[in-house]
Amino acid sequence: MVGYGYHFIQSFNGKEVSAEECNDIGVELAESLWGDKYQVLVCTHVDKDNVHNHIILNSVSFVDGSKYHNSKVELALVRQTNDDLCRKYGLSVIETEKAEKESDIASSRIQNYNRNSGKMELIKQDIDEAIEKSRKYQDFVDELAYKGYYIKKSNNSLSISTPYFNRNIRLARAFGEDYTFENIKDRIYYRNYQPKENKIYRIKIYEGVKINEDLLKTSSFYRLYVYFLYVLGKLPPKIHYIERTPEYYKELDKFNKMMDVFNMINIHDIKNLEDVQNLRTKYLEEISPLKAKKEDYMKLYNHTQNSGDKTILKVKINHLNEDIERINKKLQTCRIIISKAEKGAKEEKLIQKRTEVNREQAEKDIAKKKDRKRDR
After folding, report:
1. Which of 64, 84, 191, 367 is the most buried (most CB within 10 A)?
2. Residues 149, 157: contact at Cβ < 8 Å?
3. Closest by alpha carbon to 54, among 66, 63, 67, 41?
């Protein structure tokens, strides 16, 4: 921060953009984030190896005197908007592991803020009310203006200046795809439009004694047992439903894969990367003949006219599919272990390299100090 403003540097990969294009992108970034409430100066420098912008932001609003605070959420929005603009114009975006991790953290901060902020919920409610009252798009703009909002359109994106925040809010980013320009128009002009909702899965839970259907058909004693369960009120079972989101199943899948890794390491006493690669080779040797046999059965199935033969072949193919799926799952676990091990080895090399560089630097500093003492 300098005085009453903030200084941002927006740089590009070498000379991939001209000075004019660089300045235009800087202006678009500034307008998207702060243009309706804050004074912004964009200066383009071409004196270095890469073209870059210096963006100076006056942190005091010329509209209402409110102050801009450069929080972690605001920085995350700056970074995400900048990356979106680079992708829009086909420019380089940093794709290193560190950059990806920082991008995930930034997205998480934005999502958490949007989800937890009561003001954001109020803004969303005002937008939904404006859509409901409007018969055409201009009515929607006028209704929001009456409520103290200002809408700005860029391509298919809408950003909004609100009474509650110093920054503009990109609607689709904050509230989802139902708030793009096209989808808002659809909601205004087509009243039967239904906003997309996250899919919810419902699991049926039984509380009570489970009935063995086979015994119920074959055993008179078991039928008598079931009869008395009804008399005593143990049957029928109580049923209720538990809701599960797609995120629940994603986390469950991650957990199951992690348990598969632990079990494989424990059962096969894996000590190093070579052990895993040998195990993977063994599974590949097991699966190859199964796939070849399945292919032969499929050819026979397609050429056979006899329905009885087709049924037998189908049963055999299903058994092979089960075996192939089981081995494929083990191969996937091997790949996860190998990937983690190689990643760990790379990180270890990087740590060693950094340690050596730091030691060399420390030795140079010690040598310089000795030289200075001798000179004295």
Report:
1. 84
2. no
3. 41
φ, ψ (nearest 5 deg) of residue 206: -100, 135
- Look up the pTM and report it: 0.39
8 A C-beta contact, residue 38 and residue 57 = yes
Cα 218 to Cα 225: distance, rounded to the nearest angstrom: 13
Which two tokens mark 249?
Answer: 């199943």
Backbone angles phi, psi at 347, to 5 degrees: -65, -40
Q: Which residues make Cβ contacts (< 8 Å) with residue 36, sequence separation at least 6? A: 63, 150, 152, 161, 168
Length of the chain in terms of residues written? 376
3 state SS of 309: helix
Encoded amino acid at 288, one letter: S
What is the tens place of the pLDDT at every residue in 115-165?
A: 445 778 888 888 999 998 888 888 888 888 888 888 888 766 788 887 777
CA–CA separation, 80 vs 71, rounded Å? 14
Given the structure tokens 């201009």, which residue do they identify? 138
Question: Is residue 266 predicted with pLDDT exceeding 90?
Answer: yes
CA dihedral 336, 341, 343, 348 (to 10 degrees): 160
The answer to whether the bond into 246 is cis (omega within 30° of 0) is no
Bond from prior residue into 237 cis (ω within 30 degrees of 0) = no
